[in-house]
Amino acid sequence: AQSVTQLGSHVSVSEGALVLLRCNYSSSVPPYLFWYVQYPNQGLQLLLKYTSAATLVKGINDFEAEFKKSETSFHLTKPSAHMSDAAEYFCAVSESNQGGKLIFGQGTELSVKP
Amino acid sequence: NAGVTQTPKFQVLKTGQSMTLQCAQDMNHNSMYWYRQDPGMGLRLIYYSASEGTTDKGEVPNGYNVSRLNKREFSLRLESAAPSQTSVYFCASSERRSGNTIYFGEGSWLTVV
């Protein structure tokens, strides 16, 4: 069965610092992987997704993630954090034989200090 | 751009009451979903509908029923609300193929007292 683990329920960085949010997945077939962002009291918005093309995926707001099959990871990074990046981030997996359903990780809340 | 619209946004229920959360999408998507979000648990799939006329259970279906009224609308019903169903509920939609982006509504905050 597929699953997603996000390491760290809360990450705090200083403005301008590197953002690294970790995601590991378990899947018996080639996965599709997603990162979503949720701002307070809002729905989820897609940041980026991996669908078996390039392993380095670029998303909105300078976020990117790298699919590493050997490590079963899909970590999210951003070179320089902005105050506006403070939000909750969710990693999710969809298997190729499961239609569009997503299985989500527990979420990581990102705080950005001035 | 409306996207996925769900109502109501906020609701307080007493234990044992029933209610229906409504959801509609205007993107002509085949698949629709209901998730619940609880602190520290991410989003968990309650029910989904791969296409008009079909519905299937997700990870946490107990205590819920759904109706895919037509291609646009997918409702979630709580027949006898329990405090454990206090949560934020999200409706979502996508094309049916794996790898397609799922689009979410703004959420419905439900409190059962």
Structure commentary:
Chain A is mainly β. Helices cover 0% and strands 56% of the residues of chain A. Chain A is built from no helices and eleven strands. Chain A has strands at residues 3-7, 10-14, 19-26, 31-38, 44-50, 56-58, 64-68, 73-78, 87-95, 103-104, 108-113. In chain A, the strands form two sheets. In chain A, strands 2, 4, 5, 9, 10 and 11 form a six-stranded mixed beta sheet that branches. A five-stranded antiparallel beta sheet of chain A has the order 1-3-8-7-6, with no helix packed on it. In chain A, strand 9 and strand 10 form a beta hairpin. Chain A starts with a strand and ends with a strand. The mean pLDDT of chain A is 91. Chain B is mainly β and 113 residues long. Chain B contains no helices and eleven strands. In chain B, the strands form two sheets. In chain B, strands 2, 4, 5, 6, 9, 10 and 11 form a seven-stranded mixed beta sheet that branches. Chain B is globular. The mean pLDDT of chain B is 93. Chain A binds chain B through residues 4, 6, 9, 32, 34, 36, 41-46, 49, 51-52, 90, 92, 94-107, and chain B through 4, 31, 33, 35, 40-45, 48, 50, 58, 90, 94-107.
